[in-house]
Write a structure and sequence with these properties.
The structure holds two protein chains of two kinds. Chain A is built from eight helices and two strands, in the order H-H-H-E-E-H-H-H-H-H. By secondary structure, chain A is mostly helical. The N and C termini of chain A lie far apart (53 Å). By secondary structure, chain B is of the alpha/beta class. In chain B, 39% of the residues lie in helices and 25% in strands. In chain B, helix 3 packs across helix 4 and helix 5 (142-154) packs parallel to helix 6. Chain B is globular and about 55 Å long. Chain B starts with a strand and ends with a helix. The chains are: A mainly alpha, B alpha/beta. The structure holds adenosine-5'-triphosphate and magnesium ion.
Chain lengths: 225, 244
């Protein structure tokens, strides 16, 4: 095997990895808080709110993410004749923005269900103790409930995060030049599977890092049970 | 002056009429033990008194403040007047012992950390847990956890303390430590309402025994009367059941 070719492959994949990491980072940044909000909506006493949120979650989980990405990307134009070609936020074009929006909406639904499970698993005694001690609802939520929920949901969140690393490859459908798109192009121009294997190693290392960090975080939270 | 006044309390859960007109007044410094068979409504009564349940009928007054569920301000005031000790402690597991005790002082009562810590230290001392401030609840025995929860309830200096079966989640050998702490509080003239199945303890510590059955107070009076010489047939049946 040609080491020069391998080296240039790795360099190009690494450039694509920038987008991969961007999709990953922005998706987490938006979908985690959004997921918490969606979870609250899902548990709302207002039946209209909770039903709408339930439908949202069901659609997000029940249809392919790839299809959702296409809808977010083409929807504005085909549905509302809004041209998206010249939408840019900083260095990001609409392809990338649509990808992040699609991923965030999708992952928020999954995170919401995880958070809901965590919140509902909290013993009612925690709320009651907080109430008689005079904590406000906000204080109860942010000081007492949420920190414990974080610990409870950590293993499931780790699963989702690992899936997200791999799912970023779906952005190829919008021709975002993330790592997988780059790997595909290189593979066909080199007529070789080597770029795929190299990309696989990248994904694997990324997830190893995710796993190690999440394990550390879990350990850090294990000061109580 | 009565610290606690509950008048004509009625409470139902759907079709189940649990409290059927209970009137209970507790004077300052008085220790009242509530006894009665399972399902009689003892816990429900405490939960109504501590705003964890709303009542259907009647009135509640604690430390001179009338309970009004619609008035947030008096609701907060009334919650300052009492402390509640749960059967299963309900400590905050992610907080150290110290933070369990001080958090409400700091974030609800806006006390300085130093002030809160010194209250915490003296309470831990009193509970025989002086060296446990930095421990987490999961590393304490059940008896120690319950004493922490008593300290937490006492931290805000309440006028009355409610206990719902404070020792029934504990292994028998751990109950003594908790009961002794409550005895000490009684000596200090802490006003307390204690739901308990420990008849000997109730007899020792309580100025008055209240026997509740099927949602009404069937009999009440000094331990010497209610426990030693019950007049009501239901009280007699309950007590003879307890002895066997
Ligand atoms: N939240 C609730 N919803 C429906 N029923 C309830 C609720 N809480 C209590 N009950 C019912 O009310 C009745 C009285 O219960 P309560 O817990 O007050 O009894 P108790 O005297 O404390 O009994 P124990 O000695 O077993 O603790 C029981 O029949 C119980 O099932
Ligand atoms: Mg009970």
């Amino acid at each position: 095997m040609n080491t020069e070719l391998l080296w240039s492959t790795i360099k190009q994949l690494w450039q694509g990895f920038g987008y991969t990491f961007g999709i990953f980072g922005f998706t987490l940044l938006f979908s985690l808080p959004l997921g918490l909000l969606v979870a609250r909506g899902r548990m709302s006493k207002n039946i209209i709110v909770s039903s709408l949120v339930r439908i949202y979650i069901s659609i997000m989980r029940g249809t392919p993410l790839m299809l959702q990405l296409l809808l977010v990307y083409f929807g504005p134009y085909y549905l509302f004749k809004v041209s998206t070609g010249n939408i840019n936020i900083g260095p990001f074009n609409y392809r990338f923005i649509a990808t992040v929006i699609g991923f965030s909406l999708n992952y928020a639904a999954y995170f919401a269900e995880i958070f809901r499970g965590g919140i509902q698993s909290m013993p009612v005694g925690q709320y009651e103790a907080a109430q008689v001690l005079g904590f406000s609802r906000m204080q109860t939520y942010f000081k007492i409930i949420l920190p414990q929920v974080v610990k409870r949901v950590l293993p499931s969140v780790t699963n989702e995060v690992i899936t997200l690393v791999k799912d970023t490859s779906l952005a190829q459908v919008l021709a975002v030049t993330e790592m997988f798109t780059v790997a595909k192009e290189l593979a066909s121009s080199q007529v070789s599977v080597m770029p795929f294997i190299a990309a696989g190693v990248f994904y694997y290392i990324a997830n190893a890092i995710v796993e190690i960090s999440m394990n550390r975080f879990e350990k850090k939270m294990s000061y109580y049970s | 002056m009565a610290v606690l006044e509950m008048n004509g309390i009625h409470k139902s859960f759907a079709d189940l009429h649990v409290l059927k007109g209970i009137t209970l007044h507790v004077e300052e410094g008085e220790v009242v033990a509530i006894i009665g068979s399972s399902g009689g409504g003892k816990s429900t009564l405490l939960r109504c008194a501590t705003t964890l349940e709303t009542i259907d009928e009647g009135s509640i007054r604690i430390g001179g403040i009338d309970l009004d569920y619609k008035n947030k301000k008096t609701l907060a005031q009334i919650r300052d007047k009492f402390g509640l000790v749960f059967q299963n402690f309900n400590l905050f597991p992610h907080f150290s012992v110290r933070r369990n005790i001080t958090e409400a002082l700091i974030s609800v009562h806006k006390m300085s950390r130093d002030e809160a810590n010194s209250i915490c230290d003296s309470l831990l001392n009193k509970m025989g847990l002086a060296d446990k401030g930095n421990a987490y609840p999961c590393n304490l025995s059940g008896g120690q956890q319950q004493r922490v929860s008593i300290a937490r309830a006492l931290a805000t200096n309440p006028e009355i303390l409610f206990f719902d079966e404070p020792t029934s989640a504990l292994d028998p050998e751990l109950t003594a430590g908790v009961l002794n702490v409550i005895r000490d509080l009684a000596k200090d003239k802490m006003t307390m309402v204690i739901v308990t199945h420990e008849m000997n303890f109730a007899r020792d510590v309580a100025d008055r025994i209240v026997f509740i059955d099927h949602g009404i107070i069937v009999e009440q009076g000094p331990a010497s009367e209610v426990i030693n010489n019950p007049r009501n047939e239901r009280t007699k049946a309950f007590l003879s059941g307890m002895r066997n």
